[in-house]
Amino acid sequence: MARTRVLPTRAEWEATTASPELIRPFLFHFERQEAGKLVQRKLRLIACAAARCLWKQLPEDVFRKAIEVGERFADGTATEKEREKAFRAAFEVHNDLEVAYGIDDGTELYLLPDRERAEVWRALSATGIAITCVKPALTFGTLDGVCHTVPGLLLPIAKYRKGFSVEHGYQFGYDQVSDPLPPLVRDILGYPFAPVKFEKRWRTETVRLLTEGITADGKFDRLPILADALEEAGCDDADILGHCRGPGPHVGGCWVVDLIRGVHWQPKL
What we know:
Blueprint: H1 10-15, H2 19-30, H3 37-52, H4 61-74, H5 80-100, H6 114-132, H7 140-153, H8 169-173, H9 181-189, H10 205-217, H11 223-232, H12 238-245, H13 255-261
């Protein structure tokens, strides 16, 4: 007998504060869908948003470069060759760091003092998330792992105490730090369980030019102006207008901007 799948309501989706719990209902319903260009773009942009939360924890510039290349690759302004080059460079440095830390065989890590072990684990985990941004292809499972790890990596080192399992710090992290990912995931995906219709007549020249400017410059503070232009074009969709006028945060892949551009992935229910 098939399991009954219960879709999360909009209120439940908006109220979720822990990103794995936000992602998992999405995984449950959509993990078997084809990984086409639009869904790959969304997954990559979420991975990049997650990696940017750890920007200061990355030990080498090559990992920051990987994030930037991942963002550009998602939007078609970086080539496959650039993605592959960034992936190989970051992967090689990651391996070199493992050797430098003396944990390439997985045993020396546990001999380190607790604080030092935490620092090593956090650095390597953060680099792993940065590398995800330039992987050849992403899955919902990979994205779940990324979102599950980020809160623990934002946990202050001082919170780690003797005997605490730093390798599973994310389990402790949810109660100690504010998880930045849920609003970013919602900004990129919208409410995926109720696809939004966008009327062609709303895409006026003013709306198009504003959208292009926001995309090119990353100036998401212009979204309220975009909302006004959409309203003048006849748009009366409360979700679209509300998102534009809401507090954000907004990042590359914002669902309203993508909807206007015609690149927003809306899954099959």
